[in-house]
Amino acid sequence: MKLAILVGTMTGTAQLCAQEIELALDGDGVQVETLMMDKLHPSVFARRERVYLICTSTYGQGDVPDNAKAFYQALCSERPGLGGVRYGVFGLGDRTYVETFNFGGKRFDDILSELGAERIGERYTHDASSGTLPEELAVEWARKWLEKVRERLSQPA
Ligand SMILES: Cc1cc2nc3c(=O)[nH]c(=O)nc-3n(C[C@H](O)[C@H](O)[C@H](O)COP(=O)(O)O)c2cc1C
Asked: Which end of the chain is more exposed for a tag (fewer CB within 10 A), N or C?
């Protein structure tokens, strides 16, 4: 199985989570590649043999981080058909932003499902004000998520 982790980050926390997930999951039948969103184009989803993990934080007023903006905007304006794409979302945010908690991950989730992609598992919403370490929870969550991915891939399309 090939897994591509797509990272949206401002101060590196989401990147750290992605690195830890890659370290934990790579091998044992899974090939993991981590891609920063900076230079990504929606065509990254053309490789349907991959499973995708969106790993992104939230900034501004519920916006995606700066390095994810062009990629997100391109998805919204170009609207490629993403039928057959499977993805998960590990989102980072802070509950003190009550109105926009974890909107970065939510925005990607909304547009990907609108374009026909299928989310596997629930969207994870890390809370920076919880005092927990996102990189530890990311690995824990990603292991369980991978089980769900394997289950889904063993079923008919
Ligand atoms: C200026 C600023 C704005 C933020 N806005 C939001 C927000 O609207 N919603 C949210 O859930 N978290 C918000 N956050 C919290 C970040 O998403 C959170 O701290 C995250 O862990 C940062 O991850 P990163 O280092 O990968 O960018 C904001 C943080 C900062 C510093």
From this structure: C
